[in-house]
Amino acid sequence: MGSLLLLANGASCGEAKPLDDAGTHGNSADSAAANKCGVRNYSSSAGVTVLGPDNVLPYEGPAIVERSVPNDLILAFTPTGAATPAHARLFSLPPKFSSLPVGAKVWIAKSADPPFLSFGPALPAWFTLRDKKDGHFFMASGADAAAALYAPFTFDNKKATCTGPFDDQCASGTATYSSVDVHGDSTVAIEDGHTGTVPAGGVAYDVNIVSKTVANPIVRCGDYFGPDERFGVDIKAKDPASLVATLEMGPPIACALDNAEQKDVTFTFFDGSVNYDDKIVYTKRCPTDGDDCFLFNLTLPDANGAPSVVQILASPGLFPEPPAGQELWLTNSDAATALRGPNHGPLLLVQVKAAVPFDAATKTEVASVVGFAVDTRDRCRYSDNSSQTRLWDVTLATTTPVVVRPYGHSTATIGGRDFDAWMWEDSGRVGLTLAAH
Description:
Blueprint: E1 3-6, H1 31-37, E2 47-51, E3 59-69, E4 72-77, E5 86-90, E6 104-110, E7 125-130, E8 137-143, E9 154-167, E10 171-183, E11 187-191, E12 195-200, E13 203-210, E14 212-219, E15 232-237, H2 241-244, E16 248-249, E17 265-269, E18 276-285, E19 292-301, E20 307-314, E21 327-332, E22 336-340, E23 347-355, H3 360-370, E24 374-381, E25 390-396, E26 402-404, E27 408-414, E28 417-426, E29 429-436
């Protein structure tokens, strides 16, 4: 798997604890201080996974936009001495940053990748993205980064603004929150956990600051390093589209992920994964954030004699909700799941997940579930990282044979009906989703 640079400002316990919109670690952290010092809203778009050679050193230089869809921006760059590009995947960016076109030339700077499964106090970390060398930022995020990385922004005049109780589940103490002066085309004082608009080079930016210290912390978790007292900055262009028009374009990288926005479906058996080939009965929706979630009863009983349940979690709009009591047919194995109409009727949804390349047993198993041959084929060498050295396509022996590229979209005709097909690939496994129109 790729390395993870944690640029958000949280405690360190081997894995960072994400901050929610109140600037907490998923609960009411800082809640006591918030009563006195106000709510802290820390930016959450501060991380990047890097797939490339192990232990990539700090890098500053050119990059190519490889993939750019909402919530998934991938930039390809070539570290010194690498045989193939590395791939930096930015996560949790606002949708407006998906406007960077594939093949656009940009300029990035990143800190060294952390040691695999590193355990200890958080290390300095940063990632910046500009339209060109020494150009305008699209975004910049970091903690304890060198001041020159943020140029033309500078920061000084730190002033304590409030002191109050601190508690983030794993530690408690007394927090002192500070403001700093942020200098661009003008100067704006921004307090810890707050965002201000600062122009620089004629471009307006949202700038979020983390600047607090915690005195005499009492630590209650054995795997906790913190509370974090680093100086953190998160900078985002308010209108990145205005910068896109200035980008120099070039050809996409030779071996790249496709640029389709992905849709997916997951089948979860509440009583564990089972081999199943029988009817299911729709009961109700289940609450989720974003995706559509549906609950069906199986004909199998659970440990208490009640019907076992399967949950279908689908991307919004992928599968229309059936009426309560509707019978459908579900076939499930280790590698594939197929949802059909009543009495083993026409296909409606398919999910395939398996290691690549498919071996003979996998191909036989998948074909028996979905009703046609599905296979993988080697496409190209993608990285020097052992977890994902190569990219693989998925081939469908449908009415007209179809190839689905990783993170791509295709259409297939199955039994006289059109289907959308999406495919992802990660750490030596592929996932295929088919959904009837």
